[in-house]
Write a structure and sequence with these properties.
202 residues, single chain
């Protein structure tokens, strides 16, 4: 039984325990975010007072903005990998990480990472550190061995800035979570399937 389960789990890369560990880590980040919110006296880390929208969170506007942001980031990722050397290098350095998770882990890891990171960095830390501070911290924690470390930090910080801006503008974390999950799911599949060192027909 164990042998069959492990073999099935390794089809997309490695044992499923790797993906399970990743999901648990992100669950811990979400709990940390809620704990920080509780310490600050603001346990509702899923909403904040929006800027210029009558003082009430706007989840529908947040969702629509999140879908648009996800499409923009996904399209930009493809274009950058196709046209710039630094993005191809970053893609090549991230590819082993994605392949180690395997295709079966894409959806749970994408959803867990979106919830964990958005609750912590946007829901709990943005009100405390501000939009710029929380985005810079979000970028810094995205560490990667190799030549692309700086590019990965900068890219993550810029995406974090956009996600944080959406949260601050609408007062709802729904859009950032949806955007984050879609970006991670689609880009993880892209990392697994696309080898930037191999010529692809257009």
């Amino acid at each position: 039984m164990r042998r069959g389960w492990t073999a099935q789990g390794r089809r997309g890369g490695v044992d499923r325990t790797v993906a399970a560990t990743v999901v648990l880590v992100y669950g811990g980040l979400a709990l940390l975010g809620w704990f920080i919110g509780w310490l600050r006296g603001a346990p509702d880390v899923l909403s904040c007072t929006p800027m210029g929208l009558g003082g009430r969170p706007q989840p529908l506007m947040s969702l629509v903005g999140g879908l648009g942001l996800a499409l923009a980031v996904i399209a930009a990722t493809r274009a950058l990998v196709r046209t710039t050397g630094w993005a191809r290098e970053l893609h090549a350095d991230l590819r082993p990480v994605a392949r180690s998770l395997g295709e079966s882990a894409i959806l749970p890891v994408a959803l867990a990472s979106a919830i964990g990171e958005e609750v912590l960095f946007r829901g709990a830390l943005l009100p405390a550190l501000g939009l710029l501070g929380s985005s810079l911290l979000f970028g810094v924690v995205h560490q990667l061995r190799g030549r692309s470390r700086g590019a990965w930090i900068a890219f993550a910080a810029l995406v974090g800035l956009a996600l944080g801006g959406l949260f601050a503008a609408t007062g709802s974390l729904l859009g950032p979570i949806v955007a984050h999950a879609l970006i991670n799911a689609v880009n993880l599949r892209f990392l697994i399937e696309h080898d930037p060192g191999v010529a692809h027909s257009t």
